Amino acid sequence: MTCEQETTELAAYAMAALDPGEAARVGRHVRACPGCAGEVDEIRAALAAVRLLPDEELVGDWSGKLAELREAAVRAALAEDPPVPRPC
């Protein structure tokens, strides 16, 4: 596993969304790589925080907010530095 390319896979691992073979492979890497273990912990903390939000904040009419959210996402993506590989 190359750390700088696996954020999506780490997120899927944190959400228990990988098949058993992939989960075992990623789990071995996460246990051996402090950088990836930290990222999985951060993803799990974010998921736990989202689960605490009231349903009213997650469901509803987002149509008036989509343009603002899209603009913020584009600005954030353009401001990001290129990914820096995490140490394994």
Automatic annotation (TrEMBL):
It holds the Pfam family zf-HC2. Residues 3-37 form the Putative zinc-finger domain. This is Anti-sigma factor family protein. Keywords: Transcription, Transcription regulation. InterPro entries: Anti_sigma_zinc_sf (IPR041916), Znf_put (IPR027383). It comes from Streptomyces hokutonensis.
